[in-house]
Input
Amino acid sequence: MKKKWILLVEAVLLLVLLLLTFFGSGVVFETDESQLLREEETGAVVSKDFMLSPGMYHIVVTGDIANGGIGSGMEIGLEAAESTYHAMRGNRAMLPAGTAYREVTYYVTDKIMAAHVLIQPFVEEDTVSYEVKVEKTTAGRRMLFVMALLLCVCLDGILVFRKKVLAGEVSTQKKWTVCALVGIWGGACIPLLLDYLMLGTDSVQCLKETEYVLRGEWSRIPVLHLLYLWVPALVRWIGFPVATAYKTMIALSVAIALLLLYFLFAALEKEVRIVLPAVALGIWNPLAIRALYGAGNPGRFLLCVLCYAVIGGVTGMLLRKRKRGYKISPWAVFAVALVLLLQVVYFENTILLQSDVNYWYNEEPFMTGE
Amino acid sequence: MNRKPYIRYTLLGILLLLSLLCVIRIAMPNREWNYNGSYEFSKGESCTDQAVYEHIALGMGVYRLELSYESAGDTNAICNVKDGTVYSGGLLCNGEHMYAALDHTSYDFWLFEPTEELAVTIDYSGQESLTTGNLRIVETNLLWSRYLVILLALSAVLLWTLKDKKGDALVIFGIGVITFLASIPYLYDGMVSGADLTYHLLRIEGVKDGLLTGQFPVRLEPRWVFDHGYANGIFYCNLLLYFPALLRMVGFTLTESYAAYCIALNFATAAIAWYCFRGMFRDRVIGLVCSGLYTLSIFRIFKLLMVGAVGEGSAFTFLPLVVYGIYLVFERDVEEQEFQKSWIILGLGYAGLIQTHVLTCEITAFMTILFCLIYLRRIFFLPRFLQLVKGAFLALGLSLWYLVPFLDYYLTQDVRIRHASARTIQDRGTLPAQILQQFWLGRYPETMESGGAGYLNPVGVGMLLAAGTFLFFLLLLLGDLQKEKDAEKRFAMKAAGLGCLALWMATSAFPWDRMQKLSGIAATLVSSLQFPNRFLGWGTVLLVTVTGYVIRYFQKHHKMFYQMSLLTAGVVLSVSYAYEMDSEVQQMDFALYNQESMGFGYISGEEYLIYGTDSAKLTFARPETGENVQLTDYAKHGLKMEFSCVNGSTEEEIITLPALLYKGYVASDDKGQRLEITDDGRHLIQLRIPAGYTGTVSVRFTEPLYWRVSEGITYLTAVGMVIYGIRKRRQR
Output
């Protein structure tokens, strides 16, 4: 009865959040070039201050091309003299000359009493004619709804699992197998706990291709990349920042690879003491982890895992008859697991300590210049 | 067969005989060498290692060098002692800068090999004029006094080994191994250069200088801020630093004294952690594992070794005592013997924290309040409440000698620390990924202000403790702990919750900026924290408790997992530590032998200067007088300044002395007349000299009577505790 009540409360909460996603958008500030103030020291022009509440915003720039538009181009962004830590999250956009319309995304996580639009023109004396609007979108509420939904699903899932364990519906071995799988997944995802984007050599290409998916420029994307690009594209479409979308893709890639390996090896081998280290090796091996973080290429990571799965599967089938009746020592499993864990943690620690800091929230840092 | 330890007795005899020889040598008179001469450096022509005196023949010993000079500028030149003929490490000296206001340089050097080629050299910048004069080298007893201390320490260890230790060999060996592992970075002739290291080394030197100039306890470090006297000892308790300061006084170099202090600290931490966790889990092996996890924890090593945060690193020694005390008060049965001593453990823990690092103590008070809220019902049970009250009074009694001057100054002196509410700290928080870092790698920590990747130091509790906590939550969630009803489980649950809270508070994800905006008090408290990662100290000790409980659970129910967890702890700690030993951090080291080599000006954040003091304008200086005042025979010894003065005018005149004006300075003359002390505007001591005045004036720092009373109470409390301990021991 109590659980039904909890589910009901959850459902009502989610329904309310869902309904709220349809409201709350609107223009919070509007100005044109004549109302902007010039800062003598920097040459930048700034708008009057306005208040921002938590949510996702678009700075909308509309240039009147016939009367000069945005001149020779400019850099535009939101700023606040005083705010709490990372309350405003966004990257400034570079608008080239001739831009007639552009939206720049910003996220606000805490109330900001005095924000302003900051524009840095490339040439100060240009004749310009443009309008700037700051619009609040419903994406902020949409993100809240999705986060609440995921949280409820996770918590309910854990509770259901716990209930089944306590009722004896899940065996002890199964229980610890699930925990070990979660542990392997968690071990591979440690670098995602950075609050910024840690880029590999191919990450920017991946981010760009996600943007092409969102823009519908299908011809610029290799078909096989769509196998995983739909994840960040979906997350971005909901409204989440670039970094979140990228991290979600990595986390999901690892989870999918993990499940694939587990079900494959579990079908070939019943001894969980062999299956789990084999799965851990498939995910934590230097080649796969390097592809995931060093290269930032989920495609190559999945390819590594698939190759490993094929080799592992064939080996498993070949050895199936020979090792029947053979009992593997738990100490051997422990030793393998410990070595694997130490090497993956060491590698992850290395790349964490050497990472460049990229607070990327919108597409501006990697799409500018196209 | 019960063999008599003849060899050890023989060794003991030899050691004592050698000690006696040292005493005899110390009693003998020391020699002195005087060299006359002068060397004028050409302005505009810089030079290095210019010998002003050469071919000096000296035997082994610690010597004091005094070279007279006239310099037109500060830090214009460095005077040093060089000798290319002695072995590397045979001559220890960093030299000293030369200052315009001083007429001679004076510092110690250590010579471990007789030589005939010693040279006194000058590195000259060429910017201001410089002329060196006569040289005086004085032999000291410091070489023999340091040998004496080493011999007596070895004798004490030998004596201790002769005692019957009733089969605690495993524990002694374990604590020894943990101490050794934690102390490897201190077993070479240098120091890993941390951001705070110089500041704490100057604290040690400050205590030494204070003691040598007759201050006890040392409140104001006399030579700090270029001989102006700095109130560091009032605000930042230096109780534990008396040990390295005493080592300095008996002739050890600064590097050696600091290393000895850190090794002693590691030993104390390992031993105290073992005692607390053994008591908590009632198992000496788990006590040892937890001691290892705590003493070798990532955050403790990061703070003590890589940052050189001696205060915070020292405070970690006492955290397990507070946790164990809280556990005993709230979880143990009131009839148990351990419960009866909980107030002592809690009191000692708090006293230790107060007297090592006030900020850690603030965090500890916050955590204690949270524990009290969780155990709200148990607080209202009189015996438990009484233990808390007794513990609080014990901590207060033991700390009163420090707290009274601290509060006195904090409330009456407008020091800079009171104006620190504007600094935000959330951007200095750690990232969740950092919390899990286990390996150190070859990367030297950059400053926190550098931003970006500079934040990515290995600041966290490490993978091992995180894994232990994860396992605990799994066991709890999946019903494995349902049958466990013991006190340890209840406490581990609370420790896990509060430990996770501490980790969250250490990250930039915790809303510190919002909290800071709540009120003025909140702003001051948050701002004074400086770094949210300070919460990782509590995070570490609580997660060690949780991990200890998981190991305890495995010990009871899954022997194999228990063995595996012990092995994992050993391997992970040693592997990560081995990397740390091999890292580039070791290359960022330096060796300092005395205070002169560090200079006298660095005061970190300048928190204890009077608000408005311009530290950039402070350097060695002579008294400033009005035109009509004649000042002669000026001498400054520690915090005491003496001079004769004549005010020939018909008006009151002023004399400004080179000492920072803090409460406690008194001026009087040879006739017993008190002179008025005022602030000169730069927060230096200014004396008002009446018209026509003639006399010898003495200005000195004197502790108020109520400070002395508070010291008396602390002595009484300490003596009372010793007597109580002896009586309890006899009763048992």
